[in-house]
Write a structure and sequence with these properties.
CATH architecture of the largest domain: Roll
Number of helices: 5
Distance between the termini: 49 Å
Largest sheet: 5 strands, mixed
Radius of gyration: 16 Å
Bound molecules: FE2/S2 (inorganic) cluster
Oligomer: single chain
């Protein structure tokens, strides 16, 4: 076992892991943060998407030891002082989830898109979000929700 330190949502977690343990397993079992979901466990579905040093990462494809000392953000850290942040509110308003299994990964990927601060047109948005799978909604409402937040923050992609 190896002792590592993960800074998750601005809280330090000292955890013991085996070298084979994935980041998402460690977040769920070592840190008690079960918001990040595990679907395929081989990098296809995106349910386990978290931000590592502000970059989207498949938590099932990164070993926990690779995240030692890094800043990690999960869906548990998205809220705005206990209230929905803009993306969470948009998912709510646009009915962008049904069972909710894919939602943590979708939200973290969308967080990265919004926080880049770059204009994003509809094609690019679809291309990026298509990396995460949803079995329920057919994607349109997810795209509408992210689009609404991008438009509200001036990242409308016009002329991009
Ligand atoms: S559980 Fe990681 S990509 Fe599917
Ligand atoms: S809301 Fe069910 S998998 Fe996406």
């Amino acid at each position: 076992m190896t002792r590592i330190q993960l800074n998750v949502n601005e809280t330090i977690h000292d955890v013991e892991v085996e070298p084979r343990h994935s980041l998402v397993d460690t977040l769920r079992e070592g840190c008690g943060l079960t918001g990040s979901h595990i679907g395929c466990e081989h990098g296809v579905c995106g349910a386990c998407t978290v931000l590592v040093d502000d970059q989207p990462v498949r938590g099932c494809l990164m070993f926990a030891v690779q995240a030692d000392g890094k800043d990690i953000r999960t869906v548990e850290g998205l809220d705005d002082d206990g209230a929905f942040n803009a993306l969470q509110q948009a998912f709510h308003e646009h009915h962008a989830l049904q069972c909710g299994f894919c939602t943590p990964g979708m939200l973290m990927l969308a967080t990265w898109i919004v926080e880049r601060g770059l204009p994003v047109d509809d094609n690019e948005l679809r291309e990026i979000m298509a990396s995460n799978l949803c079995r329920c909604t057919g994607y349109r409402n997810i795209l509408r929700a992210v689009r609404a937040v991008l438009d509200a923050s001036g990242q409308d992609g016009a002329g991009a």
